[in-house]
Amino acid sequence: MRSNTPVWREENKEALQVLADVYLDQGQLDKAVVLLEGLHALEPHDAQVLKALSYAYLRVERYDDTLNMVDTLLRLGAPMPENAPILLIRGKALWALGRASEARDSLKRYMELSTLS
Predict the structure, then answer these.
(1) Residue 26, Cβ density class (10 Å: 0-12 exposed, 13-18 middle, ≥19 buried)
(2) Cα-based angle 70, 22, 65 (whole degrees, multiple of 5)
(3) Cα-atom radius of gyration of the chain, to the nearest Å?
(4) For residue 82, how many other CB atoms are within 10 A of its CB?
(5) DSSP collapsed to 3 states, the chain
(6) 66, 82 Cβ separation under 8 angstroms
(7) What is the pTM of this model?
(8) How far apart are CA 11 and CA 116, in angstroms?
(9) Contact 35, 19 (CB under 8 A)
(10) Could you tell me the sign of the dihedral formed by the alpha carbons of 87, 92, 97, 100, in that order?
(11) pLDDT tens digit string along 42-91?
């Protein structure tokens, strides 16, 4: 007997990520955050979701949440230099929080890695 419970599929995740990207591009930031937070709840270690959510949090000025997502992504071992933009996001959040020295370090590392890719 088949269950009426919907099955979570990779296609669903991809569609929601695309929709969240559209919302971000269109300035509908709150909608993007809600979608990405839902995806994060379902896929807490997904690097793409963490990266997108950290960017969305930065855009809505939730800087502590931004740092939490970025630091989680870094702890998961995000490969560099292709993920160097997370250091840019981290630097911007630190700067907004008044942590200038840490922000400079993060931005310096971002610049170093960006020249490698």
Answers:
(1) exposed
(2) 25
(3) 16
(4) 10
(5) CCCCCCCCCHHHHHHHHHHHHHHHHCCCHHHHHHHHHHHHHHCCCCHHHHHHHHHHHHHCCCHHHHHHHHHHHHHCCCCCCCCCHHHHHHHHHHHHCCCHHHHHHHHHHHHHHHCCC
(6) no
(7) 0.86
(8) 33
(9) yes
(10) positive
(11) 999 998 999 999 999 999 999 999 999 999 998 888 777 778 899 999 99
CA 17 to chain centre: 11
Q: Kindly state the tokens that stand for 84.
A: 């160097």
Q: How many CB atoms lie within 10 A of CB 112?
A: 13
Paired tokens of 24: 């971000």
Q: Which domains does the chain have, with CATH numbers?
A: 10-114 (1.25.40.10)
For residue 47, the one-letter residue type is A
Q: Are 39 and 72 in contact (CB under 8 A)?
A: no
